[in-house]
Amino acid sequence: MSTTVSLVDELEQLERNAQAELGTLNDEAALEEWRVRVLGRKGTLATLLGGLGRLAADERPAAGQAANRVKTVLESAFGERQAQLRAAGRTQQLEAERIDVTLPARGYRRGQEHPITRIRREVEDVFKRLSFSVVEGPEVEWDHYNFTLLNIPPDHPARDIQDTFYVAGSDAEGPGGSRGVVLRTHTSPVQIRTMLAQRPPIRVIVPGKVYRNEATDASHEAMFTQVEGLCVDEHTTMGDLRGSLTFMIRSLFGQEREVRFRCGYFPFVEPGAEFDMSCHVCGGNGCRTCKQTGWIEIGGCGMVHPKVLEAVEIDPARYTGWAFGFGFERMALLKYGVDDIRLFYTNDLRFLKQFR
Ligand code: FA5
Asked: 138: cis peptide before it, omega within 30°?
């Protein structure tokens, strides 16, 4: 037997064996190992081709052709197997990632307004209808605006009623050379800020958080929310104040409600009053909610004190003003029949979900 025949035989045997083996390989790593071993630079095929040089010249063409054919066949067989394995891998992956689009969707849990936000928006809407603008002010406030310019000088006893949190170490110089920074005890300092920034006519309401050094109980929190109302104009009177508050109370608690004023003292108004509404639970006959009086206290109000107008350089001989302030939490307690103010801030969803 000539050398050519035996080399061609060997090539054909390699073709058969290598192809058969290829069919048994099931992963890319084994495939790569096969490629290096059979088709690689030092692989079986290359070793056989190395034998070509030792053949007689007339035997070489036939052996060379056979070698090329085997090489092409094995390379394309390799390519096919690789494609097969990759396709199978993709199918498996798709299978693993299959999702059942017919399953019912998980419920989307919608949020809702906090009851205090709801009251705030209702009050804002009422006053917007009376052409008031909504403005805000800082919660960390100059002592000067929170107290002094509201006619509560440093040694005034009214400071005790609204004890608050003083910002320690703050000796920055404030307005008018004043010192002292506090967490505001009421929204009234925004009266001062508004009157300093704007000339009459002024009609604003000011919702926002306030702070007091307060032992908490069912009707007191150390942080709560107030709204301030301020109107400054020529000829505006306590009658306008009363009319506006009555309009608000009736919008929120029903058209049958009455509003009454009782004398009340706030250093920044003169005359000053507490305002009450007739009890919405018993209609004014007397019950547990109104402590048998028929009336429920809502907030404070009065005519802006001439000293306050002077302090912000508005002429009290030409302009008059009125103001009021009350807490949203106490209003929410009444409107929703809740008996403990602390429930609004414990973030218990069982409680909050009732206000949908
Ligand atoms: C004031 O804060 C005045 N600035 C209101 C005012 C404005 C009077 C303009 C005149 C003119 P007073 O301290 O009474 O007033 O508080 C007003 C309301 O805030 C109270 O009626 C009550 O509704 C609420 N409030 C007071 N303290 C607390 C507290 N610790 N927790 C919850 N609500 C409170």
From this structure: no
- The answer to whether residues 120 and 87 belong to one domain is no
DSSP states of 203-220: EEEEEEEEE-----BTTB
Cα 115 from Cα 287, distance rounded (Å): 25
Closest alpha carbon to 77 in 109, 35, 131, 126: 35
Per the rule left: phi > 0, alpha: psi between -120 and 50, beta: everything else, 125 is: alpha
User: How far is it, in rounded angstroms, from Cα 233 to Cα 268?
Assistant: 17
Q: The domain containing residue 272 runs over which residues?
A: 115-355
Could you tell me what percentage of the chain is helix, strand and coil, using 3-state DSSP and rounding each to the nearest 5? 45, 20, 35
Q: How far apart are CA 1 and CA 8, in angstroms?
A: 11
pTM greater than 0.85 (yes/no): no
Does residue 143 sit within a domain? yes
Those residues with Cβ within 8 angstroms of residue 298's Cβ, 6 or more apart along the chain or in another chain: 249, 275, 276, 277, 326, 330, 331
Based on the domain organization, do 127 and 84 belong to the same domain?
no
346 shares its domain with 272: yes
pLDDT of residue 177: 79
Distance 332 CA to ligand 1 centre (A): 14
Tell me how far apart the alpha carbons of residues 125 and 251 are, in angstroms, rounded to a whole number.
10
Q: How far apart are CA 295 and CA 289, in angstroms?
A: 9
Can you tell me which atom of ligand 1 is nearest the CA of 304? 11
Number of domains into which the chain is organized: 2
Judge if 146 and 84 occupy the same domain. no
- The finding on whether 325 has its CB within 6 A of some atom of ligand 1 is yes
Q: Which DSSP symbol is given to 330? A: H
Query: Which residue of 162, 330, 340, 341 sits with most ligand 1 atoms within 8 Å of its CB, as the best mutation to test the pocket?
Result: 330
Same domain? 61 vs 155: no
The finding on whether 305 has its CB within 6 A of some atom of ligand 1 is: no
pLDDT in tens, 249-274: 999 999 999 999 999 999 999 999 99
Is residue 151 within 8 Å of residue 223, measured between CB atoms? no
Same domain, 67 and 157: no
Task: Read off the pLDDT of residues 199-217 as tens digits, 9 standing for 90 and up.
Answer: 999 999 999 999 999 899 9
